[in-house]
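ERR on first pass: missing label on line 2. Operator R.T. fixed the label and resubmitted. Corrected input:
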Amino acid sequence: MLQLQALIFDVDGTLAETERDGHRVAFNQAFAAAGLDWHWSIETYRELLEIGGGKERIRWFWQQYRPDFLPALPPGLSPADWIASLHRQKTYCYSQLLQAGKIALRPGVKRLLTEAHATGIRLAIATTSSPENVTTLLETTFPESLDWFEVIAAGDVVPAKKPAPDIYQYVLAQMRLAPEHCLVIEDSPIGLQAARKAGLATVITVNNYTQQDCFADATLVLDSLGEPRAPGRVLQSDPSLIRPNAKACFDLALSESLLRHQLQPQLV
Ligand code: XBP
Ligand code: MG
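pass 2 clean. output:
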């Protein structure tokens, strides 16, 4: 029996490079629209990415960097309402960027999704980002894949966002799958922590924000999933399976080997 039954994909940074030129830009547009003098530079946003979730990120920035700021709140509205409203504007700005075609899927994503779908490997998404962001990203980049995902777990569907394991545990429960039959594709330290705490083997494809980060607990680290004509580079691996610095086109055969190796290293 195949060990691999499902691939679970993170979204931001994994399916597409959405953070620096997508979410960050949309946050800044929302701040400007609200008349705020807040601006998240590329460097500031690197630090902010340690906070999973846009509303949580706004709250954290407010507490850390603008503790004296008091928004003009209409009667009956709480600071949480104010954050939610600012975040709705940010989601709108982000969807406009996606619809303008500013963000593409990363190399190998379409290929791997297509191979998994054709082979009957089940697919799911686990993201801290809002559900409408996932839908719009897929609609604007790979619309036929929207129906391929059995579960799209996103945003506030769980109370605690990554690095908490909740979103991955939610996906496993929805799919009635044990973690040893699934492989996660992630891009960030908080994503890796979340998946590992849920008992899931995780492949990392680093991006422009996470290429210097430590992923000691990952099963494999690549610079991208790669395409046959432009394979990814292995940045961290178990050499008995695939050697560091090798070129790889990440596919289902490699996924299956990784899962088997994770469970029974001596048999591979
Ligand atoms: C990365 C995130 C998200 C986005 C913003 O999510 O932390 O919060 O930066 O999205 P992923 P929202 O788990 O896909 O890597 O503003 O919709 O929260
Ligand atoms: Mg991510």
